Amino acid sequence: MKYISILGSTGSIGRQALDVIRNNQNYKVVGLSANNNIELLEEQAQEFKPNIIAVYNEEKAKILKHRLDGSDIEVVSGLEGLNRVATESSANIVLTSVVGMIGLIPTLKAIEHGKSIALANKETLVTAGKLVMNAAKDKGISIIPVDSEHSAIFQCLNTENEKEISKIILTASGGPFRGMNYDEIKDVTVKDALKHPNWSMGKKITIDSATMMNKGLEVIEAKWLFNIDIEKIDVVVHPQSIVHSMVEYVDGSIIAQLGITDMRIPIQYALTYPRRTSNNLEKLNLSRIGTLTFEKPNYKTFPCLALAYEAIKIGGTMPAVLNAANEVAVDMFLKEKIKFYDIPRIIEHTMEKHSIIKEATMDDILNSDKWARKIISKDFKG
Ligand SMILES: NC(=O)C1=CN([C@@H]2O[C@H](COP(=O)(O)OP(=O)(O)OC[C@H]3O[C@@H](n4cnc5c(N)ncnc54)[C@H](OP(=O)(O)O)[C@@H]3O)[C@@H](O)[C@H]2O)C=CC1
Ligand SMILES: CC(=O)[C@@H](O)[C@H](O)COP(=O)(O)O
Ligand SMILES: [Mn+2]
Fold first, then answer.
1. Which bound ligand lies closest to the C-alpha atom of 124?
2. 6 alpha carbon to ligand 1 midpoint, in Å?
3. Ligand 1 midpoint to CA 231 (Å)
4. How far is CA 163 from the centre of its chain?
5. Ligand 2 in reach of 238 Cβ (< 6 A)
6. Does 148 count as an annotated binding residue?
7. CB-ligand 1 contact for 18 (6 Å cutoff)
8. What percent of the chain has pLDDT over 90?
C-alpha cells in the first residue's frame, strides 16, 4: 500500500489523480488541499477519509473546520497548512498539483521529509529548479514528472544512456491561436484564449498554452528535471498533441511517446512507476487520427516562448522573475484588466528592471518573486 498526499486536490490534475486512485486499490489518500473550494474538498474528504486537509484561505478553513468538527479529519490553513499536508507523517508520496509558485515551499518541505514527489506543479522547477533538484539528490528521493511532455521524455529516456542523448524535443499544440498573426491575436478575449484545442485544464495553464509561455516554462522544467543544457532542448509545434514529446539520440534515432490527450495516463504512470497498470481509458487509434504534423514555433507571434529561453539562459533569479511576472499578468488578463499582448510586455518590462543574483539562494528567489509582483503593481496598476 502507498500513502499519498495531494496538494491541489480540487484542481484539474488533483481531481483526475483522485479518479486514478478510485481505480487503484494500492493507494490510500492521507492528505488533501485546496485554496478556496471547500465544497469539493469536503466531498473529497468524506470519500477518501484523509488524516489531514489544508485550506489555504484562512476564512474558508474556519468554515470547513466547523463543518468537520467531531470527525477524525484535521483541518489546517495557510502555507503552514500546505506544509503540514506535504509532510504528513504517513505519506510516502506527494502529488504537487497546486498552480503557481505557492507550490514551491511545500514541495521542498516534502523532499526534506523524504517523500517521493509526483510533480505536476511546473512553477516549482521554473523558479528554483537547481535548489529543488539538489535537495532531492541529497535526500536520495525521486521526482517523477506528471506534466505530459516530461512524462513522455522520462519514458523515452528509460533504459537509455544519458550521455548518448543529442536533444530533447518538446511538442507544443500551438494553442488556440496557432497560425494566426499579431493583428488577428491582439484583441482576443479571455473566452477565446481559454479554448484549448486538445486539453481540458485549469485556467492559468490554459492561458499559458495560448501565449506559449507554457512551453517556455516546460523548457525550463525539462532542463532541471533531466539535467540537460538549454541548447539541447527544442520545441516543435504538433497540433494534434498525440506525440507527447521525443528524445533524439546521437545516432539520429528519435524515440517518442504517444497517447491520447488524457492526463490520467501520465498521472497513473507517475503513481505506479516503475510498473505500468491497466486502466479503462480509451486506447489511441492511429488510423482514425490519420495524420500527425509538425511545424516550427513562431517566436515573433508568441514572444513568451523566447522570453522563457532568455530567462533560463540568464539564469540565477531571472526565471523566478519571469514566472512571477507571468503569474501576475495572466491573472490580470483573466480579470480583463489587460490585453493579450500585455502579458509578454509586462514580463519583458519586469525582466529588464531586474538586477539578477547569479548564485541564488532560496531567500533570493523568494525575494525576487516578491520584488517582481511589487514592481508590476507599481508600474501597471498605478
Ligand atoms: N491541468 C493539466 O492538465 C496540467 C497541469 N499542469 C500543471 O499542474 C498544476 C495544476 O494545474 P491545474 O490542475 O490545471 O490547475 P487548477 O487551477 O485546475 O487547480 C489548481 C489547484 O491548486 C489550488 N490552489 C490554487 N491557488 C492556491 C493557493 N494559493 N494555495 C493553495 N492551493 C491553491 C486550487 O484550489 P481551489 O480549487 O480551491 O482554487 C486547485 O486545487 C499547474 O502548475 C499546471 O501548470 C501540468 C500539466 C498538465
Ligand atoms: C497536458 C499538458 O501537459 C499541458 O502542459 C499541455 O501540453 C498544454 O498544451 P500546449 O502544448 O498547448 O502548451
Ligand atoms: Mn505539459
1. 1
2. 11
3. 30
4. 27
5. no
6. yes
7. no
8. 98
Note the pLDDT tens digit of each residue in 113-136: 999 999 999 999 999 999 999 999
Residues with CB under 5 A from ligand 3 (ion): 147-149
12 is in an annotated binding site: yes
CATH 3.40.50.720 fits 2-145, yes or no: yes
The answer to whether 178 and 235 have CB atoms below 8 angstroms apart is no
Query: What is the rounded radius of gyration, in angstroms, for the C-alpha atoms of the chain?
Result: 20
Q: pLDDT tens-digit profile of 45-79? A: 999 999 999 999 999 999 999 999 999 999 999 99
Any binding-site annotation on 13?
yes
- Judged against a pLDDT cut of 90, whether residue 332 lies above it is answered with yes
> Which ipTM did the prediction report?
0.99
Domain boundaries in the chain? 2-145, 150-314
pLDDT tens sequence across 173-185: 999 999 999 999 9
**96 Cα to the center of ligand 1, angstroms:** 9
Work out which ligand 1 atom sits closest to the CA atom of 121: 43
Check pLDDT > 90 for residue 163.
no
In short, whether 78's Cβ falls inside 6 Å of ligand 1 is: no
